[in-house]
Amino acid sequence: MGIGTTHTIALIGSGTIGLSLAALHLTKDPHSKVIIYDTRPDLEAYINSTLPGYLVNADVQQCMARLHLAPTLKDAVERADVVQEQGPENLPFKQSLWPQIETHAPSHTLFLSSTSGIPASQQCTSMRDPSRLLVVHPYNPPHILPLLELVPSPQTSPETTTRTQSFFARLGRVPIPLTRECPGFVSNRLAFALLREACSLVSQGIVSVQDLDSIVTSSMGPRWSVAGPFKSYHAGGGTEGLRGFMEKIGGTVGMCWEESEKGYRENNIVVGGEWQEEVCRQAEEAYGKSGVGDTAERDRKTRRVLEAVGERERGR
Ligand SMILES: NC(=O)c1ccc[n+]([C@@H]2O[C@H](COP(=O)([O-])OP(=O)(O)OC[C@H]3O[C@@H](n4cnc5c(N)ncnc54)[C@H](O)[C@@H]3O)[C@@H](O)[C@H]2O)c1
Ligand SMILES: *[C@@H]1O[C@H](CO)[C@@H](O)[C@H](O)[C@H]1NC(C)=O
């Protein structure tokens, strides 16, 4: 079985997430071979213009020499140890993809989907062996941010999950298995809960979009890269830990939770609600009509934060 020694990774779909995953494998494992299958007509030009920028602190030529484009899906997967798909986010595409991959890939190959929302239990309905499929949800951009959420379907075998976990751990990543499928997994559930509260506060006129962003980046943003909410408030509770925190500050916490729920109800903070126009207007006024800012600057700064908090950088 190849996972321990050989490293041929087939990436199906190489848009935003696929190219970033290619950079991850090429830079973190100097022996890996990456094979890309993507139907876009300008694939080679797109890769040539985008991928080298992701290969920071690496020998770009050496990395590019280990990258191969496959003319067909069969060519991509027939010698792969790991197949990860990040094609379009639609169910028919993913459902029809896996049986084809299953037909052509070796029997030891891991089958992984980067989906942000289509659970493995729905993707696997036409597979011969659904125990092989696992959702591995990256946090964009995965060549920089270490988290991978491993989300098994009820049919996914425990072995598939443990092998995937050790595979990504060996690349210096942080793979976290969830016990079961849930909409949004964990990272997006947390992020969108904060987004909802942020939209609510702005729509009530309590704070502007730009000031809210400043509040996050100058307080919980840096804090959360060092300690998550539980460890933070466990420390905040002093010698009594989280228990003490809830005893001392629990009243305020409860009041905030009630206010938040009242705010969502009274201001109809649902997707497409009236509040949305004003929040989007403020975002455009603060940051320009197009959201595509300088991702190179974002990525450079994020790397430095991760280096500061001790992310292990292997293969450098
Ligand atoms: N963008 C994110 O922040 C993010 C984060 C986590 C997970 N995801 C998931 O990753 C997947 C891809 O998202 P993205 O943002 O990279 O999208 P994208 O549109 O940038 O990339 C999709 C790629 O799939 C290719 N493609 C289309 N049809 C194909 C086919 N039949 N065979 C092979 N390739 C095909 C397209 O040419 C394109 O390059 C989705 O499932 C999404 O939910 C995205
Ligand atoms: C991409 O780069 C390779 C290597 O430099 C080159 O051979 C190839 O012609 C380039 N392709 C395109 C479409 O730019």
Automatic annotation (TrEMBL):
Region Disordered, annotated ranges: 286-316
Basic and acidic residues bias: start-end ranges: 295-316
Leader sequence residues: 1-22
UniProt keyword list: Oxidoreductase, Signal
Pfam family membership, one: 3HCDH_N
3-hydroxyacyl-CoA dehydrogenase C-terminal domain sequence ranges: 184-250
Domain of life, source organism: Eukaryota
Family, per entry: Belongs to the 3-hydroxyacyl-CoA dehydrogenase family.
Protein name in the entry: 3-hydroxyacyl-CoA dehydrogenase
Organism: Zasmidium cellare (Wine cellar mold)
